[in-house]
Description:
single chain; seven-stranded antiparallel beta sheet; 8 helices
Amino acid sequence: MKKANSNLKNSFEEDFLENEISDDLFSKYFNRVLDVFEHQLSEDEAIHKLSSFEKHNLENEAKFIELFKKLFSLNDGRIVLKFELKSIEPRMLFNIIADLDYQDRISFCESIINHFDSQSFLYKDISAEKILMFVRLATRELYFPVFYLKKYPAMIMGNFDLSFPIFILNSNDYNLYKKIARECDLFLRE
């Protein structure tokens, strides 16, 4: 049984390395949406509840920061970040940097210069502070990295409107992530 679990975990990690969001991921793994709302908003609800970027994204950013602090600790710091640097045009890169806070600008530039593997664009052995800088990139919709949590395998993909797809290897881990999300006033919704 341990070998089967190991093979499944290896397959999950390979999918993280190779895939973007695809139908294949949705059919292979347990998935939900990490969100500030318990359910998918109707068009009318979205108009009223997503009135402005500042009101929605920036006011809820702290919840995602707190969540990722807990996930970092839960996974013993074993988080891999996938960030497709080659797909960013220079003009877009300047826009990202301009929209970050001063300390995040420094951290982002250091990350680009020092820590990206030129072949795979994976950021390994990432510090909690760097993780949080990349979380802010996602919550501010500047760019959407993919986070792979290794100890309790899960993939979290940044997305618009703070609705981040999450893929989880098994139901026990789902229950764990659901509990932690609730502690941060977030939901894993269908």
